[in-house]
Design goal:
Number of domains: 2
Largest sheet: 7 strands, mixed
Distance between the termini: 57 Å
Shape: globular
Radius of gyration: 22 Å
Helix content: 25-40%
Strand order of the largest sheet: 16-15-12-17-19-18-20
CATH superfamily of the largest domain: Spore Coat Polysaccharide Biosynthesis Protein SpsA, Chain A
């Protein structure tokens, strides 16, 4: 993809990751990058909603994610009015515009009003999910009736790669070329979902009476039990998805233990701000790395659960992946326990947590939206607080 110009991105199954990676690459090359939308887009912690501030923030090597507040949804932004958009876009080397939505589905064809592409477009990229094939249309498609109509098949039909390309060619390429003859349009297979495993290991262990994370338990420090389990899961594909691991700590012993392990290690400079500060240290580091896609999940663990088994975590992630839920946790009956999983669109809520309010506060606000997974043994969920 070119590093300059005005690029419109539409489709499903990887738009957010595609845009973030393109923006990061251009910024690394010292270019000015403006990321926005012509419809609706997730509002991130660093999103700028004032057009003057957005224009002023553009500088070499910077990525400015900006749009107007969506009056119907405080978690979203909408496109700036045309004059304000042009004022910012004219100052940027690369403009990346998300041009339609897909509600986290793996594939779509556009409705009549989509995609929303301005005449200034230099190219359009149409994404489709890496895991769309081999599933029924109705299970993985946004606008399933449109896909079925183009293909002339029922919505129960299982998609093949050839069917996907046929539907996208007619649904997107031909439609866009009717309006913008000669405009380059590219089909791109998106990246798959990733589990971002986050191990919180920065606490003070006030109730324990000593540093419980370093306390020896069955031949190794307490933190290492779950830490080693998560390192093993990084090499697997639970629910058909890859995983990475971020460890947040204040302790040099824990930092050294994860050196050269393949995990990120993030130091929380002030854990006295509470567990929310450790979670936000991890999230900020992940976002700076531009490695978070729109269909990804953050899965948050606490390091004082040494008995949690890999089989349980693997089963939870596999079941959550197939459930369609965007929130989840382990549970004893209806009681929510760690770990907790959050789809990427919950990033703004996670970044607003304060003090010792962990992610379960978000889950408790909408329990009907939470996927609960019981472990084989309740003892796995024991968190050790006392000697």
């Amino acid at each position: 993809m070119p590093l300059t110009g005005r690029i419109y991105v539409c489709g499903a199954g990887g738009k957010t990751t595609f845009i973030r990676q393109a923006a990061a690459e251009a910024a690394k090359a010292g270019l000015t990058v403006f990321v926005t939308t012509s419809t609706h887009m997730l509002c991130l912690p660093d999103t700028v909603t004032d057009p003057e501030a957005a224009a002023s923030a553009l500088r070499p090597g910077a990525v400015v994610h900006a749009g107007a507040p969506d009056p119907a949804n405080p978690r979203k932004i909408i496109g700036f009015p045309e004059a304000e958009y042009r004022k910012i876009a004219d100052r940027a080397d690369l403009v990346l515009v998300e041009a339609d939505g897909a509600r986290h589905c793996r594939m779509k064809v556009p409705y009549a009003h989509e995609p929303v592409i301005r005449p200034d477009a230099d190219a359009v990229y149409v994404l489709y999910g890496a895991r769309a094939a081999d599933h029924p249309i109705r299970d993985v498609c946004y606008n399933p009736e449109g896909v079925a109509s183009i293909l002339g098949v029922p919505e129960e039909t299982v998609l093949t790669d050839e069917m996907i390309r046929t539907a996208l060619t007619e649904g997107y390429l031909e439609k866009i070329h009717e309006r913008f003859p000669g405009l380059p349009v590219h089909l791109v297979r998106g990246t798959e979902r990733k589990w971002h495993l986050i191990l919180l290991a920065a606490g003070y262990s006030k109730r324990f009476g000593a540093n419980k994370l370093l306390y020896p338990l069955n031949g190794k420090p307490m933190f290492a039990h779950l830490g080693d389990t998560l390192l093993g899961l990084m090499t697997e594909r639970a629910g058909g998805c890859g995983a990475d691991l971020t460890v947040v700590t204040q302790y040099e012993e824990i930092r050294r233990a994860f050196d050269r392990s393949g995990a990120r290690v993030v130091i929380n400079p002030d854990p006295s701000r509470g567990i929310s500060s450790s979670l936000q240290c991890a999230l900020s580091d992940l976002m700076r790395g531009s490695g978070v896609g729109g269909d990804d999940f953050f899965v948050v663990f606490t390091a004082d659960q040494p008995y949690l088994r890999a089989e349980t975590i693997r089963g939870f992630l596999t079941a959550l992946s197939g459930s369609g839920f965007r929130l989840g946790c382990l549970a004893c009956g209806q009681e929510m326990k760690s770990p907790c999983a959050f789809a990427a669109e919950y990033l703004p809520e996670l970044m607003l947590l304060r003090g010792d309010a962990g992610g379960k506060r978000i889950l408790r606000q909408a329990p009907e939206l939470v996927f609960l997974y019981p472990p084989e043994s309740p003892e796995e969920l024991e968190d050790i607080d006392y000697l």
